[in-house]
Design brief:
By secondary structure, this protein is α+β, with helices and mostly antiparallel strands. It contains 3 helices and 4 strands; from the N terminus they run αββααββ. 18% of the residues lie in helices and 35% in strands.
Length: 72
C-alpha cells in the first residue's frame, strides 16, 4: 500500500490529522526519522507526488494523529 492510497484517494476520505515520516533509511518516527508531511503544519493540502508514491511500512496513532512511516 502506498501513502496516496490512504491519504489522497478519490474513493476513500481520510478526514483526520496525520504525520508522514520518511523511514527509507531504517529510522523510525520516534527515532530520528524526518517528518516530511504534517497536516497540523502543512494543512490539508495534497502532499507531493514523491510522498504519495512512498510505501507504507507502519501505522500507529499519537495524540489523536495518525503516524505513517513510509519508505521509497
Amino acid at each position: 500500500m502506498v501513502v496516496g492510497d490512504l491519504v489522497y484517494n478519490d474513493d476513500f476520505d481520510c478526514n483526520c490529522n496525520y504525520d508522514i515520516y520518511d523511514c527509507s533509511d531504517g529510522k523510525q518516527y520516534g527515532d530520528g526519522a524526518e517528518l516530511i508531511f504534517c497536516t497540523k503544519r502543512d494543512g490539508f493540502n495534497k502532499p507531493l507526488d514523491r510522498i504519495l508514491d512512498m510505501k507504507i511500512k507502519y501505522i500507529t496513532t499519537q495524540d489523536s494523529t495518525i503516524v505513517i512511516e513510509a519508505a521509497k
